User: What shape does this take?
Amino acid sequence: MKELATLLRRASQAYYQEDRELMSNYEYDRYYDELETLEKETGLVLAGSPTISVGYEAVDELPKVTHESPMLSLDKTKDREALKSFVGDHTTLLSWKLDGLTIVLTYREGRLFQAVTRGNGVVGEDITGNARVFCNIPLQISYTGELILRGEALITYADFERINSEIADVDAHYKNPRNLCSGSVRQLNNEITAKRNVHFFAFRLVHAEGVDFGNSHAREMDWLKQQGFDVVEYRIVKADTLDDALDRFAAKVGENDFPSDGLVALYDDIAYGDSLGSTAKFPRNSFAFKWADEIRETTLTEVEWSPSRTGLINPVAIFEPVELEGTTVSRAGLHNISIMRGLELGIGDRVQVYKANMIIPQIAGNLTRSGVIDIPSRCPACGEKTEIRSANDVEALYCVNPACPAKAIKSFDLFVNRDAMNIDGMSEATLEKFIAHGFLHSFSELFSLGKYREDIIEMEGFGEKSFERLMQGLERAKHTTLPRLIYALGIPNVGPANAKLICEALGYDTERIRCATEEELSAVDGIGGVIAGTFCGWFAEEEHQAEFIRLLEILDIEKPKVQTEEQILTGKTFVITGSVEHFANRKALKEKIETLGGKVTGSVTGKTDYLINNDRTSGSAKNRKARELDVEILSEEMFLEMISQA
Assistant: This one.
């Protein structure tokens, strides 16, 4: 079923988005029918199946949910003998301790009912809408009793690298897969979640009414597999086989595409494990094993300082190469000056180096502590003065030269990025050449590069065809939207989503945008004081204002769709659930509400005015919540009658 779903998705994408065919219509229909038949036979429908359509939805907030029983942390050790003592003669499941975000799933009547984050262990957040667009969560299973299970949501290293590679601004890169996953799982718009390729791996069955698992956690895991869940990889061990299993897991860490920070040991005997109870902090039936860090001594030879678009100059430790976890390592990020001061790090010091989670090189300690004396007073890119700035008790180094070429290259790289002006043929290396030749001093000059035709054609790596492709890319990029342009300007803290919010709030009026006040922007839902301050601060610069006006004269800014219908639903908030009959789908109904000035969210809250559900008398969660909050429940017909009479 997974293979069929993947094959059909690829064929559909090629046909509809890339104008090419991977198979004939006959073949597509045959595979589709086969998948549909299998889903009916098994009662299982996997997330992403071409036979279903999960609509995207946006919510104002993630409702808080109290867990039925507190989710405790695990006691942990790095000592093999301590773990061996815990295992003893007990049959034990040894599995990966995945480094993502713990999620609790509830199924009722064979369908995904609710997904909740771990939160603080007592109260989590309802992310059901986001879980529906995870890569591999079954939306429908054959078992129809109430099922509750726990697992880890995570993003692979490959997707982490892909997502970061699509972000031109290095300062905006995600630090690690776990942070990216946490933000992706807790998005207010699940269309963003869907693009992040979040995976879910079950690691514990909490409750499955009426099913006999023979007092074995291993049987629970096998049963979850049969229901269509991907479960965390595990081995069954006892004390005498533990070392071999640990060695096998350790050998796979460097090959895995998913982040993990150790292993978990769980007694297989359910009744025995439950009888042990728990301490105030830890359950007694399970134990976490963290990898003992392989630490090597070496000599710090250099601190490399790397300037960025915002002026932040990032320190990187360069040391004599050492072998760590099977690879040669010679550099590690230091992040900021505060970390350097804490380590009293100076050139020539003997330092201890390890790989965090056996993956990311870090400085563990400094044996000689000569002191930080090597902070550059001049920017390595432009030679101008630097200054140390402190924010939230963290010191960092900045270049204060507004004309620093490193800033320029990073700024131009953001401007031409796919999410910004989307200019084909403009790599960072190409931009660096153009800036070095004096062709570019401002963004607007990109669109007059044609006057340097002869010079560009003679450049290494260029020619007539490359030049023509570049000109075509620039011409295409002239037709753009105002939010894309605002994002492309590189205003600190203003990403694509914030740029759109600002444009919408200010009516896509370029005069209002460039003259906006902090008070005006701070009042916009989703724009706080920090963003308002950096936005207004950017436009306060006279040269920025002039550049914005120059770009507006060059570009063909797409006009936003004008609302032609009377805004009779202004100020009203709706939630849509269940199937629809009078509209093509729920998205079409949502668009109708929005064209009339209304707002559609994904969860029923105290701010909701109406819940639209054709099954008004059902006991669904949204219906129950609506009744609890005294929110009126409308059928489609009632909604259509309401807007016809308004």
